[in-house]
Design brief:
With about 450 residues, this protein is an alpha+beta fold. It is about 40% helix and about 30% strand. A hairpin with a 2-residue loop joins strand 22 and strand 23. Helix 2 runs antiparallel to helix 4 and helix 6 packs antiparallel against helix 7.
């Protein structure tokens, strides 16, 4: 203990300066040595100084030995400390999984059954059609996924779906940006200084075509492609979902009813054509007989000409009236919607407007037209995409609602859309109906 106190006194009496070299002072003698050799040099100086300093040299060498052991241990201690820090950091950092990580996409020729239990003998709850998507809730040990899709919750065989493939999920889904502010400006460039292309109301949505620009999304609108700020929209992906057993039965019943209605209308049209042909034949026969009479008389034929004129007039009038009645009988509720909508052609487009005569926007036009038939539709194009029931583009009929990215209109027949297009054209007709990518076709009647 006495030796250690002496060393401390010597260290306090002298100075040790660390740099690329160390300056060691003991008594009146100074030596300049490399830093790595400071401790050993101090011991040597003490030995040479004699007296008390020489007696403490052994103690200094002991301290040097302990320091060397500490330096040998230091790399392992640093490595262990770094590993522990990294381990803690790894557990503390939030792990953000891809939104597509649990998306299962059916890859089948037609459909895969969704069953109540993970067993091929279990009850069928619905069907997941090719390229339809589901969310995986659980993976079983025997090759099944528990999924939820639309109104269907059950199990599918793992071999018939692909899970976690981001590119595949994106290809079968529709990326949407839903407006979360009262009125959103869609700009021509991704900057608030750019020109306003169009405006979107709260709750409306548009298809996202690109997300590579920080803080902005490129979207498709009725007026072309533009940009919306991400601060004012929420992004989501819309998929085609499974069809439950009840939904399938309702769809098949509806399709059968439509087929029967189409067959009935076709039969009525056939009978009307046959009746028209019979009337035309009868009129021709009557005209032939009248001509024969005129030929037989040969004299005083002034009245005969009048008779012939009267006959022709009667035939023409009867034919036109019959054709009009036939057309009226064959017209559906959807066609009546179109006929009503046509009277507003040329009227102005007004963003947020609700007047079919003084100005309306696209969804306001559809809502206003259907209101005349006692149908209360929601206000935005996004909400109108879920009304009624879905039909394929190949089965589209007059009166069906055609939904696009940020736009909506009414199918007018003959591959034509009637809609409130924009401020330049107002309420107008556009052909073909696929002038833009169609998101959905909805039938109300």
């Amino acid at each position: 203990m006495k030796k250690r106190m002496t060393i401390l006194a010597l260290l306090l009496a002298g100075t040790v300066t660390l740099g690329s070299y160390g300056m060691v002072q003991a008594g009146q003698e100074k030596r300049e040595v490399p830093v790595a050799g400071v401790t050993q040099t101090l011991a040597q100086v003490l030995k040479e100084a004699g007296g008390v300093q020489a007696q403490t040299a052994d103690a200094v060498e002991e301290l040097q030995s302990n320091a060397a052991v500490a330096r040998m241990m230091e790399p392992e201690m640093v490595e262990e400390e770094a590993w522990e820090t990294a381990e803690v950091a790894e557990h503390e950092l939030p792990q953000t999984a891809s939104e597509f990580a649990d998306i299962a996409v059916a890859q089948v020729n037609h459909y895969v059954n969704v069953r109540q239990e993970p067993d091929t003998e279990s009850e069928i709850l619905g069907k997941l059609y090719d390229k339809s998507a589901a969310t995986v809730l659980e993976t079983t040990e025997d090759g099944w996924y528990r999924i939820t899709s639309g109104n269907v919750n059950g199990y599918v065989k793992a071999e018939y779906v692909v899970v976690g493939d981001e590119e595949l999920a994106k290809s079968v889904g529709t990326r949407l940006a839903t407006v979360t502010t009262t009125t959103l400006f869609v700009r021509t460039e991704p900057t608030t200084e750019a020109k306003v292309l169009t405006m979107l109301p709260d709750g409306d949505d548009v298809v996202v075509t690109d997300e590579t620009t920080e803080g902005w999304a490129k979207v498709s609108t009725a007026d072309g492609d533009g940009y919306v700020a991400l601060d004012y929209v929420t992004l989501s992906t819309e998929y085609i979902h499974a069809e439950s057993k009840a939904e399938e039965e309702a769809r098949l019943a509806r399709e059968e009813a439509e087929r029967q209605e189409a067959a009935r209308a076709a039969e009525e049209a056939r009978k009307a054509r046959e009746a028209e042909a019979a009337r035309a034949a009868a009129e021709q026969e009557a005209a032939r007989k009248a001509a024969e009479k005129q030929e037989a008389k040969k004299a005083g034929s002034g009245s005969s000409a009048a008779t012939g004129s009267s006959t022709g007039s009667s035939a023409g009038s009867g034919s036109g009236s019959s054709a009009g009645q036939s057309a009226q009988t064959a017209s559906s509720n959807g066609q009546a919607v179109v006929d009503y909508a046509r009277q507003f052609l040329g009227n102005p487009y007004v963003y947020g407007g609700n007047s079919l005569t003084n100005g309306t926007d696209c969804s306001g036009f559809v809502k206003g037209v259907y209101a005349a038939f006692g149908i209360n539709l929601p206000r935005t194009s996004a909400e109108q995409r879920s009304v009624g029931y879905a039909v394929s583009l190949s089965e589209i009929q007059p009166g069906d609602i055609v939904c696009y990215s940020g736009h909506v209109g009414i199918y007018a027949g003959n591959n034509t859309l009637i809609h409130a297009s924009n401020e330049k054209t107002g309420i107008t007709l556009t052909s073909p109906v696929t002038y833009r990518s169609v998101l959905a076709v909805r039938r109300i009647f």
